[in-house]
C-alpha cells in the first residue's frame, strides 16, 4: 500500500483527535529519510547494551514475514486487514526497555515468570503483589514466599515475551528486532503510544476493543509485571530504518544460510544471540 492508501483508509475509519494523530504518524512514518538516525556499532563477540527506551519486536517464523517487515516497516495489521480484532488496535506492540541493561540480563529476566501473591486472607487481605521472576529462579522465589506468614495464595504466569520474542525457554519466535529510539525523529513517533497517559479517554476508544476498553483505562495507571508495565503500542507503526540489530534464537543462530540472508537484507545492522553477544557485527 502507498502513503495515499493509508491516508484514505485513516480518513474512512477515524475522526477528530484520533484522525489527527494517525495522519501525523503516517506523515512521520514516510518522512524517515529526512531525518538522521544513529545506530550503535558492535563487533563480533561484544555484548549488546540496551539503553532505556530501546524497543524490541518479535515476528512469526518465515522468510516472507521477515522480508515484508524489512520492506514495509512495522505497520498495524488493521491497516491491511481490518477483520483482525486485537485488544489494542491500529498500533504496533513493542517491548520498551525500562532501564539501561545488557541484553543478556534482559533475556534472563524475561525468559522467566511473573508471580502474583495475595497479602492476607479473606476480609483481612490487603491486596496483591506482582513480581518478575528471572529464568530458573521460580523455585527459589516460591520457597521464600511459602515462608512468608502474610502470604495466603500465589500463582504464576509465563512472561509475554516468551510468546513474542526469542527466549531461553521457547522456540516459537526466532527473530527479534532491536530498534534504536534515541533520535529526535524516533521520539516524535513514540509520542503516539496508546499507553501514553496523556491521551484522553475519548481518543483512546479508536485504539481499543470495546470489551477491553474499561479494563485498559484502569491498567494504564496501574501497570505491573503481569499486565505488563513494559509494553508500548505505537499508533500506525514505525519504519524499518530504526532497526539497528537482530536477536536470533537458538535454532537460527547456527543456520548459516539464514544468518547470511538476514545480513544481506540489513547490512548496517548487527546480529546477536540469546547470550546477548554479537555473532555478526556492523562496525
> What sort of overall outline do the alpha carbons produce when their principal axes are compared?
globular
Spans where pLDDT lies below 50 across 5 or more residues: none
The run of helices and strands is: HHEEHEEEHEEHEHEHHHEEEHHEE
Biggest beta-sheet profile: 7 strands, mixed
Number of strands: 14
Widest β-sheet, arrangement of strands:
10-4-2-9-12-13-14
Helical content (DSSP H or I, runs of 4+): 25-40%
Give the DSSP E fraction (strand runs of 2 or more residues). 15-25%
Q: What structural class should be given to the helix and strand makeup?
A: alpha+beta
| Spatial extent as radius of gyration | 20 Å
What is the straight-line distance between the termini? 34 Å
Q: How many independent structural domains?
A: 2
Give a description of the structure.
With 283 residues, the chain is an alpha+beta fold. The protein folds into two domains: 3-102 and 161-280, no CATH class; 112-158, no CATH class. It contains eleven helices and 14 strands. It has helices at 3-13, 16-29, 63-72, 103-110, 138-146, 161-164, 184-190, 201-204, 213-219, 250-253, 256-265; strands at residues 49-50, 55-59, 74-75, 91-96, 101-102, 113-119, 127-133, 151-158, 175-179, 231-235, 237-238, 243-248, 270-272, 278-280. The strands form four sheets. Strands 10-4-2-9-12-13-14 form a seven-stranded mixed β-sheet. α1 packs antiparallel against α2 (16-29).
